[in-house]
């Protein structure tokens, strides 16, 4: 049986939508991605982890596919939308870890990102 953890819907939506909806802000997002990957991620590793975890979250909970606030929502409107989503889908979801996560040395991954950012662009 796959081990799962009860996770706030807002934390999950912080991975599957472009909005940081977690009540705990970055701590909620980081805790979820650390859980799903089984890793202790640094800030610069979160986007790679989110890219891998988002499809897994949608596969685990198909209701998440397309569940996102309307474009251009203000912060108060995001909170209203989130409350509505929680009433409809529950405040928590059971989340399983992903398989196949590739741990990278955080220092080396940071260096690699800096090198990529500093590559000259060709006209």
Task: Report on this structure.
This protein has helices at residues 9-16, 26-37, 46-60, 75-89, 106-117; strands spanning 4-8, 92-96. By secondary structure, it is mainly α.
Shape, principal axes of CA atoms: globular
For the largest beta-sheet, the strand count, sense and barrel status come to: 2 strands, antiparallel
DSSP E strands, number = 2
Provide mean pLDDT, rounded: 90
Strand proportion: 5-15%
Radius of gyration: 16 Å
> How many helix segments?
5
What is the share of helical residues? 40-55%
Query: In angstroms, what separates the terminal alpha carbons?
Result: 54 Å
**Oligomeric organization of the protein chains:** single chain
Structural class: mainly alpha
User: Poorly predicted ranges (pLDDT <50, ≥5 residues)?
Assistant: none
Order of helices and strands: EHHHHEH
Query: If strands are numbered along the chain, what order do they take across the biggest sheet?
Result: 1-2
